[in-house]
Design brief:
With about 325 residues, the chain is of the alpha+beta class. The protein has 4 helices and 23 strands. It has a 23-stranded antiparallel β-sheet that branches.
C-alpha cells in the first residue's frame, strides 16, 4: 500500500522540480534580456552621439527596444538624418530591427517607404518600395556581410518618376581582405524621354574587389570613385544586361585594375547579341560612351566568334585605351 501511495508523490515532486527549473530559467532569461536591452539602447545612444559629433544629426522618434523574450531589436516610428554642413536631409518611415537572442550578431531590419532626400541646390528625391529588408552579420572586425532586398523599388526626382523595377537585391561580404559584391535589378525601367523606346531590362553583376574588405566597416565613407578604386584590382565574374521581349543583351567578364589616376586596365570577354541595337541604347543612356559603343558594334562581326546569334570578342584596356586585337576602340575616361 505504501509503495502505491509513494509513487504519485514522486511524480508530483518531479513536476514541482520541473516547474521550478523552468521558472528559474525563465527568470534568468528575463534578466539577461533586460540587461541586453539596456546595453543595446546604450550602444544606440552612443552611436547617435558619435554621428552628431561628426556632423550628422540622427532622429529616431519613438525609439524602443523590443523583442522580449527571444528577440532583441530597435524600432523607430520615424527615422531621419540631417547633415547641415552639406545641406542634406533624409526623412524615412518606420524602422524595425531584430536579432535572435542566441545569435545577436545577425540582424534583420526593415525600413518603410517613402524616403525623401532634400538638398540645398536641387529638387527632392523620393525613393519608394513595397518592402525593403536588410540582413547584416557582424564579427570581430565589424560588419562581415550585408544583404539588401527591395520589392518594387522606385525613384522620383521632384514630381517626375525616373526609375522603377519589380525587385532588386544587393549582397556584399568580407572574404579575408577582399570584398565580394553581387547585385541584380529585375524588370527595371528608366523613365527618361530619350529612353522611351528602351524596354524593361534585367541587370546583374558579380565581382570581387581586392583589399576592399574594410569598405564594410566604413572604409568607403566619403570617398570618390577614383579614391575608392585607386591602385586596386579585382575580378568581374559577370556583368549581364538583358532586355524583356528584345534579343539585345551583353555579358562582360574579366580581371581589372585601376591606376592611381583612375584609369582602367584589364582583359575582358564581351559577349553581345544585336550589337548595333545595344550601341544605340548605350548612346542614349550615356552619350559620352556613344562613340566607343558604336565602334565596338562595328568591329564585333570581324574580330569576334559567333554562336547561336551571340558574338564574343576579347577586349583589352591599357590605362583606359580600349583595343580589340590590334583595332583601337577608343578611350575610357578616368574615374572621377
Amino acid at each position: 500500500m505504501s509503495s502505491s501511495t509513494s509513487e504519485p508523490r514522486r511524480i508530483r515532486r518531479a513536476y514541482v522540480w520541473i516547474v521550478a527549473i523552468v521558472v528559474v530559467l525563465f527568470a534568468i532569461l528575463t534578466g539577461f534580456w533586460f540587461y541586453a536591452a539596456s546595453q543595446l539602447d546604450e550602444i544606440t545612444s552612443r552611436a547617435i552621439e558619435d554621428a552628431e559629433r561628426n556632423g550628422v544629426l540622427v532622429s529616431c522618434l519613438g525609439r524602443d527596444v523590443v523583442g522580449y523574450p527571444f528577440r532583441l531589436g530597435i524600432v523607430c516610428d520615424d527615422l531621419a538624418l540631417d547633415v547641415p554642413r552639406n545641406g542634406v536631409t533624409v526623412d524615412a518611415g518606420s524602422f524595425r530591427s531584430a536579432a535572435q537572442i542566441y545569435q545577436p550578431n545577425l540582424v534583420v531590419s526593415e525600413l518603410d517607404a517613402p524616403v525623401r532626400i532634400e538638398t540645398a541646390d536641387g529638387p527632392p528625391v523620393d525613393i519608394g518600395w513595397n518592402l525593403a529588408q536588410a540582413s547584416t552579420s557582424f564579427w570581430t572586425e565589424g560588419l562581415d556581410r550585408i544583404s539588401i532586398a527591395t520589392d518594387a523599388p522606385r525613384v522620383a526626382i521632384g514630381d517626375r518618376s525616373i526609375f522603377n523595377a519589380s525587385g532588386g537585391e544587393l549582397h556584399a561580404r568580407r572574404r579575408e581582405d577582399d570584398l565580394d559584391i553581387a547585385g541584380v535589378q529585375r524588370s527595371a525601367k528608366i523613365d527618361l524621354p530619350q529612353l522611351s523606346g528602351v524596354p524593361n531590362f534585367d541587370l546583374s553583376t558579380d565581382l570581387t574587389v581586392q583589399g576592399a574588405a574594410d569598405w564594410l566597416s566604413g572604409g568607403a565613407s566619403g570617398l570618390s570613385a577614383r579614391e575608392l578604386f585607386a591602385d586596386r584590382s579585382g575580378t568581374l565574374r559577370s556583368l549581364v544586361l538583358t532586355f524583356h521581349g528584345d534579343p539585345t543583351g551583353a555579358d562582360v567578364s574579366g580581371d581589372f585594375a585601376f591606376s592611381a589616376d583612375g584609369l582602367l586596365s584589364g582583359t575582358f570577354d564581351l559577349a553581345v547579341t544585336s550589337p548595333e541595337r545595344l550601341a544605340s541604347i548605350v548612346g542614349s543612356i550615356a552619350p559620352e560612351a556613344a562613340s566607343i559603343a558604336n565602334t565596338v558594334a562595328s568591329v564585333i562581326p570581324y574580330v569576334g566568334t559567333t554562336e547561336n546569334g551571340r558574338t564574343t570578342i576579347r577586349v583589352t584596356a591599357d590605362d583606359g585605351q580600349l583595343t580589340a586585337g590590334v583595332i583601337p576602340l577608343g578611350q575610357i575616361p578616368p574615374l572621377e
